[in-house]
Design brief:
Blueprint (H helix, E strand, L loop, with lengths): L7 H12 L5 H10 L2 H11 L5
Helix pairs in contact: 1-2
């Protein structure tokens, strides 16, 4: 099953819910995973030049 591309707006919304104390940490982690946090971080890391 193919995952949809990461959704930065969903990721930010989940993060903000956690910062405001509206959502427990376990649920936030699940939401971040579902919205593609790993894929987004992998993509951003791949853009960075290698560390010396």
């Amino acid at each position: 099953m193919d995952r949809p591309p990461p959704d930065p707006k969903k990721l930010l919304a989940s993060w903000m819910e956690w910062e405001k104390g509206e959502t427990p940490p376990g649920r936030v982690m699940s939401n971040l995973k579902t919205a593609g946090m790993r894929e987004l971080l992998e993509e951003l890391a791949a853009r960075e030049p290698a560390a010396p």
